[in-house]
């Protein structure tokens, strides 16, 4: 009886204030929208509320709120409160509201009239409009909304008129990607293609247009390419190809885009936006993860083949990109952290270098020949060494060289490897495997010949390295391109040792002048090897990197430095985990019985603090070696295997003689282990082993704590 009384006392079954307002005969829409829980009640499909909202005058008022500017005299803090609430109600995904809005042509006309406003549109209202129309396109299964838009002859023109507002770009993409089913989507694509949507977007990428229109038009085209390719891969049974993608990949479209970029006045904004479209067309592989939003598709990649018509359209314009690298649109001097840069590289030249890298990645013979004729790679290397602090440029030059070195001669074949995968070739490990193709099956690659003979890649690497060493020896700063130069040198060495162009690269190295070849061999064996060794050292390591007579002894004790670094990292993680447990109030007394704690051995290891010193005679070195000998047991196949489940007689000692300290020798550990196997749980050792143990370095405070726990356990055992 008592719980029932308490329930009624607090009156938990309260009625929403929205319902109380709806009971009033003269309630207005604004009164309801002032309530904080109106959206929650709407999504909960409150019958009384939905009946009120779906009245004709209420729906018209909601649509007017999202399509007309609020009065200017209103307080700015609440000016867009009602339009925002109206948009949330109209897009709440409630079937009754969707049916009313999508099935009433009067409401759709009020919504559509928003496009008749003169630009620029209010960006907030434009987002409300785009969200509402997009919701109808995605949620309304009937073809009413699509049919309504197709009847409007000026719809595409009005959307492109306001393309400088990003919400209009979103609306176009919703039309392309969110229409279901597939047959209806194909009809929409055909309708947009008949309206020449692609060609009209390309026309907007022109120096005569403002920057926002060019940028949004370029981004829309890039998104259309990616969406169309993804959906084509997912829906293999499509009866006809995507007409928008076909139009974009056509040679005529590519040529029109390039004319807009280079014919007439050349502006950086137009060149950059046009190049972004070309780079998207040249994408051969794209990750399925966008910002790590979907963990299930992490690491998934889709492969595409570059259409030859794209390459045919670009090839005649390579001279324009080469000229762009020579003389870009003028830019004023800029102040950087290293001083004033009188002639900045500029975004246009950076995008030009990106396009060259993407074209080299396709390994197209005719394009390779044209680039050799223009000496474009030689020009890129000039820029590489001129702009020593522009790592964006350095990375593109690195990718270009990697593409040249790792491609065999494949006449007329377009590769489908990811441009970004070239980065894996250049991580400093010269011996990393690259391609399984045999050098005997490859012929001369004109780009490799051009790179080593005309561009003098090896000589440039050596000269730049020696110049940097001279600057640093005089107290100057290390050049900003030395990291990428190291990776380029590693790529040369790697592909010379094992790669599709192995024979050709080796011949060029042999044909170098004797003094240059000697410098290169000395550079690879000494300088580059030492640089790679330093680059592989973990930054958190605390041991000193110094050259002394004891280095050989250190290497013999620790043959694999990377393994040591990995072990140290694991030790840090274990220590962090142990401290994490301690922070929650656990102490050693609560874990006196170590047999009940499955993580006890790891906790002991985690709490041992040690330092690695180059001196083999130091106590720390002996401590570390003893720890390894104690914890790492060697497997001996000759030893007779023992059944660990075999029942044995267990005897208990009456008194604890001593305890084994951490750092005991292998003999002491074996003896202790043998005693335990024979039922001796008192932890005692003979006098000789005690003396040997006492000669070891004193344990750390953490170890002393663990020994106290062990001693307490032994005392408990003796008492038992």
Automatic annotation (TrEMBL):
One of its GO terms (molecular function) is protein phosphatase regulator activity. SUPFAM superfamilies: ARM repeat. Pfam families: SAPS. Residues 685-694 have a biased composition (Acidic residues). Signal peptide: none annotated. One of its GO terms (cellular component) is nucleus. Residues 672-684, 711-720 have a biased composition (Basic and acidic residues). This is PP6R2 phosphatase. It comes from Aegotheles bennettii. The lineage of its organism: Eukaryota, Metazoa, Chordata, Craniata, Vertebrata.
């Amino acid at each position: 009886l008592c719980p029932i009384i308490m329930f009624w006392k607090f009156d938990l079954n309260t009625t929403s204030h929205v319902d109380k307002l709806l009971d009033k005969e003269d309630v207005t829409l604004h009164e309801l929208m002032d309530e904080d829980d109106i959206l929650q009640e709407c999504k909960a499909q409150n019958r009384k509320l939905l009946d009120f909202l779906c009245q004709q005058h209420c729906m018209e008022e909601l649509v007017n709120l999202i399509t007309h500017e609020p009065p200017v005299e209103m307080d700015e803090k609440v000016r867009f409160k009602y339009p925002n609430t109206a948009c949330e109600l109209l897009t709440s995904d409630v079937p009754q509201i969707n049916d009313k809005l999508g099935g009433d042509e009067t409401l759709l006309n009020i919504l559509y009239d928003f496009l008749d406003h003169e630009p620029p549109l209010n960006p907030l209202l434009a987002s409300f409009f785009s969200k509402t129309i997009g919701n109808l396109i995605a949620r309304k299964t009937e073809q009413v909304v699509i049919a309504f838009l197709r009847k409007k002859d000026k719809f595409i023109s009005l959307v492109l008129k306001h393309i400088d507002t990003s919400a209009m770009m979103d609306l176009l993409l919703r039309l392309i990607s969110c229409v279901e089913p597939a047959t209806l989507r194909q009809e929409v694509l055909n309708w947009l293609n008949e309206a020449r949507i692609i060609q009209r977007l390309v026309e907007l990428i022109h120096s005569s247009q403002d920057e926002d229109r060019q940028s949004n038009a370029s981004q829309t085209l890039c998104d259309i390419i990616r969406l169309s390719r993804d959906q084509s891969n997912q829906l293999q049974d499509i009866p006809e190809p995507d007409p928008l993608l076909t139009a974009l990949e056509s040679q005529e479209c590519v040529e029109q885009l390039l004319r807009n970029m280079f014919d007439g006045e050349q502006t950086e904004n137009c060149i950059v936006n046009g190049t972004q479209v070309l780079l998207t067309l040249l994408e051969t592989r794209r990750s399925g993860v966008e910002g790590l939003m979907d963990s299930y598709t992490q690491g998934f990649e889709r492969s595409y083949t570059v259409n030859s018509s794209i390459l045919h359209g670009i090839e005649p314009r390579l001279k324009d990109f080469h000229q762009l690298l020579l003389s870009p649109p003028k830019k004023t001097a800029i102040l950087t952290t290293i001083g004033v840069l009188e002639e900045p590289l500029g975004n246009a030249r950076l995008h030009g270098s990106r396009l060259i890298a993407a074209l080299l990645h396709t390994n197209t013979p005719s394009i390779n020949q044209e680039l050799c004729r223009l000496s474009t790679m030689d020009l890129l290397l000039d820029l590489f060494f001129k702009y020593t602090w522009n790592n964006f440029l350095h990375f593109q030059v690195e990718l270009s060289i990697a593409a040249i070195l790792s491609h065999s001669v494949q006449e007329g074949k377009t590769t489908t490897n990811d441009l970004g995968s070239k980065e894996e070739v250049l991580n400093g490990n010269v011996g990393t495997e690259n391609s399984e193709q045999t050098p005997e099956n490859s012929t001369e690659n004109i780009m490799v010949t051009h790179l080593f003979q005309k561009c003098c890649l090896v000589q440039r690497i050596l000269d730049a390295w020696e110049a940097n060493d001279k600057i640093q020896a005089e107290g100057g700063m290390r050049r900003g391109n030395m990291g990428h130069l190291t990776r380029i040198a590693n790529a040369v060495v790697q592909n010379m040792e094992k790669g599709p162009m192995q024979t050709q690269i080796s011949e060029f190295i042999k044909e170098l002048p004797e003094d240059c070849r000697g410098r290169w061999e000395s550079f690879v064996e000494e300088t580059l090897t030492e640089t790679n060794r330093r680059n592989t050292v973990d930054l958190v390591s605390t041991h000193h990197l110094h050259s002394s007579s004891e280095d050989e002894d250190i290497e013999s004790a620790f043959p694999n430095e990377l393994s040591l670094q990995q072990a140290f990292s694991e030790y840090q993680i274990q220590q962090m985990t142990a401290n994490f447990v301690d922070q929650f109030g656990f102490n050693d007394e609560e874990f006196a019985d170590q047999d009940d704690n499955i993580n006890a051995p790891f906790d002991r290891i985690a709490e041992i603090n040690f330092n690695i010193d180059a001196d083999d005679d130091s106590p720390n070195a002996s401590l570390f070696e003893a720890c390894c000998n104690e914890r790492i047991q060697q497997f001996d196949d000759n030893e007779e295997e023992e059944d660990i489940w075999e029942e044995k007689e267990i005897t208990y000692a009456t008194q604890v003689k001593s305890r084994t300290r951490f750092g005991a020798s292998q003999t002491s550990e074996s003896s202790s282990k043998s005693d335990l196997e024979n039922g001796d749980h008192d932890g005692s050792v003979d006098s000789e082993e005690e003396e040997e143990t006492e000669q070891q370095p004193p344990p750390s405070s953490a170890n002393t704590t663990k020994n106290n726990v062990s001693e307490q356990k032994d005392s408990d055992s003796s008492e038992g």
